Amino acid sequence: MDDELHERVREVIASVPAGSVATYGDIASVSGAPSPRLVGRILGEDGHDLPWHRILRADGTPAPHLLDEQLQRLREEGVVPDGQRVDLRKYRWRRDTDDDAGPGALF
């Protein structure tokens, strides 16, 4: 993986605002990463200073080893999970299409 892609993934993750979530696949799509797994790898190795807790699996759940801390951090930001799952229809990050300050819109 090149440094440019690595930094682009970090930039997209950093742009997910409080009160919103995105999936690993969303971040891969916006950043041009070849897979959601690469996004997870970057977060695992170099995500300590990013809002990592806002990134979820495709079904709206955190990774099992992060479950309690991740859901607590999301609750503190106003994201109310339904059990151990976040309703992606309600909380999924949507970037304004007019916003050209960063990577493109998710939708």
UniProtKB/TrEMBL annotation:
<dbReference type="Pfam" id="PF01035">
    <property type="entry name" value="DNA_binding_1"/>
</dbReference>
<dbReference type="GO" id="GO:0032259">
    <property type="term" value="P:methylation"/>
</dbReference>
<feature type="domain" description="Methylated-DNA-[protein]-cysteine S-methyltransferase DNA binding">
    <location>
        <begin position="5"/>
        <end position="79"/>
    </location>
</feature>
<keyword id="KW-0489">Methyltransferase</keyword>
<dbReference type="InterPro" id="IPR052520">
    <property type="entry name" value="ATL_DNA_repair"/>
</dbReference>
<dbReference type="InterPro" id="IPR014048">
    <property type="entry name" value="MethylDNA_cys_MeTrfase_DNA-bd"/>
</dbReference>
<dbReference type="GO" id="GO:0006281">
    <property type="term" value="P:DNA repair"/>
</dbReference>
<dbReference type="InterPro" id="IPR036388">
    <property type="entry name" value="WH-like_DNA-bd_sf"/>
</dbReference>
<dbReference type="InterPro" id="IPR036217">
    <property type="entry name" value="MethylDNA_cys_MeTrfase_DNAb"/>
</dbReference>
<keyword id="KW-0808">Transferase</keyword>
<keyword id="KW-0227">DNA damage</keyword>
<dbReference type="GO" id="GO:0008168">
    <property type="term" value="F:methyltransferase activity"/>
</dbReference>
<protein>
    <submittedName>
        <fullName>DNA methyltransferase</fullName>
    </submittedName>
</protein>
